[in-house]
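Entry 14. Ran structure prediction on the chain below.
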Amino acid sequence: MTTMRSIFLAAFGLLMSVGLTAQTLDDAIRLSTLDHIGTARFMGAGGAMTALGADYSASAYNPAGLGLIRRSELTFTPLLYTNNTDARWAANRENDRFSNLQFSNFGLVISGQPRNSGTFTNLSFAVGYNRLANFHSHIFSSTRNEGSILDRFTELGRGLEPERIDDFEVGPAYDVFALIFDPTDNTYSSDLEAGTALRKEHTFRTEGSINEIYLSFAGNLREKLIMGLTLSVPIVNITEDKIYFEEDDEGVNPVFRSFEFTENDELSGVGFQLKAGMIYRHSQALRFGLAIHSPTWYSMSSEFTTSATYDYDVTQIEEGIPPGPQTANSPRGLFDYNFTAPWRIMSGVGYLIQNRGFISFDIEYLDYTSGRFNFESRFSSDERVRNNEIGNELGSALNFRLGGELALDLFRVRGGLQFIESPFESVDDRDLIWSLGVGIRESDFFLDLAYQRGLREGAYNPYQVPGAEVQQRVLTDATVSRIALTAGFKF
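Output, structure tokens:
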């Protein structure tokens, strides 16, 4: 199986190394990427249904597909999501697992033949909810080696008086007496002795998703050309919690006992997007599809805080210092900005095998370099830096999806593959996601079940020390699986 190191290797290095920022390259990637989840039928066929339609998921990808739904239907899809992650920090391996029950979609499609129309043989209107992307994951790693996160803070504070240090990293560490200021040269040091090996732990939890509320319209022109349009309002809610902990578990240092640094970032926003699509029926069996998604215009808000806790032996240091542990919290950081996600183009071809099922193939193109941050004027230099990172580090992606369905009377069996290209210009890997599904189709009711699985490999730095040749490094293997069940009622 090809790996997903392509997406996570660079993104984790930016996201998970200590150093708080209101927006990162990883935010640009997350706001530009779709998971292609959909209904259980859509998922079971690998999401390769651009040319086929006749499925509720068309509203999120190629809205023309709604024009092939002949009768009105009510659809909902609960989904069980599981992320199982192995993390290797030096020679030590840890495992963390996260599962939760979600709703992939639910909605209503009103469809029928218009009266006195010689142009449209079928019109459809849909309204509802779709989950477009999921970010839930829990990662825990640990090791025992030399070095400390305080090395980072001493470097960040170099040359700055205490009143000039930042409020989110160096500031909290200084407030809890973990950093010692030397006014002779404006430098900082810690109570750690050189060469001390510490036991270290890092916990990273992400919960959140991108969900859309939408309206869709589709029309079937004489069974030859089907066209559709979706008005989408995507809603973003992501919460990240990072906890770094280190301690002198062997009691080597006379003063230092333990230090903990936590970060919390809550990202929320709302956007607007248009999706247009068409399906051309060359014949009853052969069909071609094309969909274009406009940029998504997001209005985002980030709220972030940090805290530091230092435990030490007060009897070994100067008088006037209160006993440990001491805790200090940063102020609440608020940052509002806009982000424009890139255009997306999807095309596909599908072939119906009489009444025996179908096989389909999709190609999706998007250019990650066209994503753009828009900050307030006083942050114009930061805006240029972030947008230059997007242009220099990201590239375009060409994703492929292959799927099929076998019809056995009322029963359906499905399978699919997705080959997802890395958003990073310097990474040439493709990720493989496979899926299987089954279903039952009655005249007034259908029930579908699908299973999807993918492997994600990544790497990140629990913290980074500026200028250091060797950094702390954690390697991760995450198995992501989804089980979806779709129930639909036709009327």
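The two ends are 43 Å apart (CA to CA). Will compare against last week's run tomorrow.
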